[in-house]
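Hi R.,

As promised on Friday, here is the backbone we talked about, encoded as structure tokens. Could you run it through your design pipeline when you get a chance and send me back a sequence?
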């Protein structure tokens, strides 16, 4: 577990299903404490017993349920996903629905991304200089921002890229300085400028 900002923790785990490292976040600085796209860290579930128990889990999309069920079992954590992703949960998972534009517990705002999938969501966390949390819509590889491979974008990848660019250009209107990414290490400090450069440099 790495405290990347005061009260904000990041960890990396290997996801066997996609055979890649993925990234999870614990926002202890919010009230109540929340998790984003969590898997269990190497320290185990008991690590959270020495901190504020996570009361809510926010999924950037339906595929990022990951180890949420184990947090539910241990801490009674409430899991949230955008309403258009609830059809994924057919094995008794208890998941609450939100809409894009909703303010969730802890003051976290659910921002519309869509395009990649209907429920794709970015979360705006109004702590410090502002934080934007991104799921599958934008990834970070060797410090460079990018998109997932074209074969994961459906029949018209260029249209999807145009849609993602439009969505995140709109989100640049918000004040933030940091990016929390599900795929790629977090970008702490000057992340808004980096995201702007990436979006402006796209030829889509």
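Update: got your reply. Pasting your designed sequence below so it's all in one thread:
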């Amino acid at each position: 577990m790495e405290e990347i900002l005061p009260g904000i923790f990041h960890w990396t785990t290997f996801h066997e299903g996609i055979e890649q490292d993925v990234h999870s976040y614990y926002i202890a600085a919010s009230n109540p404490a929340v998790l984003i796209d969590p898997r269990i860290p190497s320290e185990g579930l008991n690590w959270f017993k020495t901190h504020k128990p996570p009361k809510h889990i926010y999924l950037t999309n339906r595929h990022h349920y990951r180890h949420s069920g184990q947090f539910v079992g241990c801490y009674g954590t409430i899991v949230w996903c955008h309403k258009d992703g609830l059809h994924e949960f057919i094995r008794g998972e208890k998941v609450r629905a939100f809409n894009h534009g909703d303010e969730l517990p802890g003051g976290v705002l659910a921002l519309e991304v869509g395009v990649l999938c209907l429920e794709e969501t970015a979360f705006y966390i109004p702590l410090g200089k502002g934080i934007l949390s991104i799921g599958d819509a934008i990834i970070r590889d060797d410090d460079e921002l990018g998109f997932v491979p074209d074969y994961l974008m459906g029949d018209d990848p260029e249209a999807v890229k145009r849609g993602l660019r439009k969505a995140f250009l709109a989100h640049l209107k918000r004040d933030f300085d940091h990016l929390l990414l599900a795929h790629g290490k977090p970008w702490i400090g000057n992340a808004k400028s980096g995201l702007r450069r990436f979006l402006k440099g796209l030829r889509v």
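One thing I noticed while checking it: The chain has three helices and 15 strands.

Thanks again,
M.
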